[in-house]
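PROTEIN DATA CARD
Card holder: Glycine zipper 2TM domain-containing protein
Chain length: 153
Origin: Rugamonas apoptosis
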Amino acid sequence: MRHSTYMGAITLVAASAAAVLGGCASNTQPAAVTYPPATSSVAASYGTIDSIQVVRTGGGTSGAGAVTGGLVGALVGNQVGSGSGRTAATVAGAVGGALVGNKVESDRNQAHDTYQISVRMDNGDYRVLQQDDLAGMQVGARVRLVNDHLYRY
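Structure generated from the sequence above:
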């Protein structure tokens, strides 16, 4: 008798679980997904050069080289001597380091020419890019844009 009661309880639990889970099921279809009209990625990456301007960039300093050089010079100077001699060495190191740091920064930021290239893209967009070289490109030439760099097409 006990066995049949136990089996009856299991059957009841199983039937209840099926009823609950069946109530969770949905017969509705998912909503239709709509996408905006596709734009042509090919058209967006090709265009024609409209104009080319030579732009002088670089030159000058921000002062970061002088500050960094001054700090390093002061630290090195502070390692020399003691008392007023140490103070004088610290000041001399700071001044010398600032001069050297400024010169290094100035040398790294030499002024040079770059090219500002205006391109009318095939999709109608207008892009202006700056490059260090022209690679034979000229006004009216067909170009391809890859990772913000123009190439002859």
